[in-house]
Amino acid sequence: MDWRLLDHAKDAQDTATALSTFLDEIPEYSKEIKGDIAELFAISSALDVLHEDLELSRYGRYAGRILRDLEICLPSLSYTLEDIRNIFNKSKRKGRQHPGAFPGTPPYAQIWEDACDEMRGTRTRCLGRDEPQAIERLMKDGFEKVLELDKRLVLRTESSLQLCRVNREDGRLDLWANLRFTLYERMVLFYSTMVAMKRQDNTQAPPGLEDIFQPGEREEFGGEIQDNSYLHAIRIFRDTDSGCVRFEATPRRGPLKTIPIWTAFVTQYIGHKSWMKRVGPQTISFRELHPYMFTDGYKLPKGPSGRYQLTFTTPKDMRDFMEIFHRIRNFRFANYYQGGTLSLEPSSTVSGTLASEITFLTMASSHTGGRSDPLAAMAHSEAHYFNSYNHHGIHEEMLKDEVRTKSYRDAIYQNGHLFKDKVVLDVGCGTSILSMFAVRAGAKHVIGVDMSTIIDKAKEIVERNGMSDKITLLQGKMEEVKLPFDKVDIIISEWMGYFLLYESMLDTVLYARDKYLVKDGLIFPDKATIFMAGIEDGEYKDEKIGFWDNVWGFDYTPLKATAMTEPLVDTVDLKAVVTDPAPVITLDLYKCTVDDLSFRLPYELNVRRPDFIHAIIAWFDIEFSACHKPIKFSTGPHTKYTHWKQTVFYLQDVLTVEEGEKIVGELENRPSEKNHRDLDITISYKLNTEDMHRQATGQGTYKMC
């Protein structure tokens, strides 16, 4: 696939070489020329890297999607060439004041307003406003004014960028962060991305983009610009706990939550050469990003005692941190350290600051604040499962899954006549979103049951929304809690896991059905179907499996067999699908039993086109069929993204197939003997073809854990 990236890279390099010949001819513009030369070389280098990324096997699956991400540097090249043209235009009118420049600014000074006049047209303007003291500071220190935001100024001098906050009271510039770069090319790469956003629109970020936030983050700035057929977006976030800053810049045509992006993470270790982390170029979800990261090689500092040390600026900060730490330690760490936990001990003042040291204790209480921890007595694997739902991140991911949440909402709201004056049981209620949907639909009362401590927050949410009299929330296992009603009219639950059955929560729903659901009661949803298909995924398979052939010069093939047994949960491009999808099993929640969740069933895949098949993928469809207005949704590669994605099972063989041929086999699924929430899966396959050289038969055994 030819996107002429190498041609663009060569153009940038040739232009930089030619431009260097003018350094002696127009010495008064040498600073600008050197800056443009550096930018051109950096852009050339960046385009070379992007071309290499495209060729890397790991991105083969996404080759059809990454065009916008690869071309993010191309506007930088055109804008830099425009800057060069301006240099020669200014040299022709030497001695004349550059239009729009600040008083006293040299005629060759490159400033924001002049650079974007021709690009932004008459209907756009810079965000923010000029303050007299800010301009005075700029002139005094010789900064170039690169980008002005509503609340931030980004200033460039030499090989550093400075983020400044405009003091709205007196207009002065307060230094917010000083970004020093050990490699000038890295600074230019980041700067070039910002330059690509020059025509900043003054419209506010629409409310629909609020789903890009990470837990604990606050948006400092959000803006968009239109550039031909692309909509560019830039965001600056600040983590309220760590103080770290995250930049995002992207061209996009769809929802901001699933697009290629460039992300820079800013910490106090900004000077490290790897401070800028490019995420992609494959399409990812924002929810998969951590709001900040430490740079490579960073280690937590140790105090004089040899223990790891945290430093605080005030006694209150230290006390607040320790209070939070002690509040959560038993819940979060007790099961991971088998009776031991982390503890904090305040130490003496060190260099005018307060420190707190981390040490290990051999015993830890399983009680917090006088209340028994319901997870403490469980087996490690069981407690780990419920602990995973204690954290906000997993609930945020599910709530932001538009396909999932909207389908449940529509199934409940559009069938309000079924919920009116009914008693509803929400199994695994989490943050209680389904419970509140049911109340809004007219339910008389809803009982929500969940084992994790997130239910404490759910109670606050229910109270905040004025539904405490309609919703009763209980913490505990469904099999052990005592409900305030002997029977319920409707059971609602979001019980599905990866591959539909991973984590085995359906067992609990079936238990609740048998014990509490009235005769002719309803279950939302009530049908689930697992589908399979064959995909071409050779390059990604080589990256995942072939990696073990040579690891830094060593033979790691003993791990290769293990890697083959681990299914991959990932999004699959529809273009990679080689066969028609085939349903394997449909579970009717009114009739199925726990025994039905262990099965061995045949499948048959019809080949669509001549190609190779490296893996079998599985996904599931969900139906709310007992409704006046039925609702369905799918988690397959042909539909919108869901957090369930698809499950990829790599085959031992590479199947060479022709259109019209069939792949037949059996899918076997059973709960693991070690942990019933894990799955043991076996897939057998046989390629039916008259060509004896392509005939293949095999079997793969996989563990989802």
From TrEMBL:
GO biological process, one term: methylation
Keywords for this protein: Methyltransferase, S-adenosyl-L-methionine, Transferase
SUPFAM superfamilies: S-adenosyl-L-methionine-dependent methyltransferases (SSF53335)
Domain of life assignment: Eukaryota
InterPro entries: Arg_MeTrfase, Methyltransf_25, PH_C, PH_N, PRMT_dom, SAM-dependent_MTases_sf
GO cellular component, one term: nucleus
Domain Protein arginine N-methyltransferase: 526-688
Name of protein: Nuclear SAM-dependent mono-and asymmetric methyltransferase
Species this protein is from: Didymosphaeria variabile
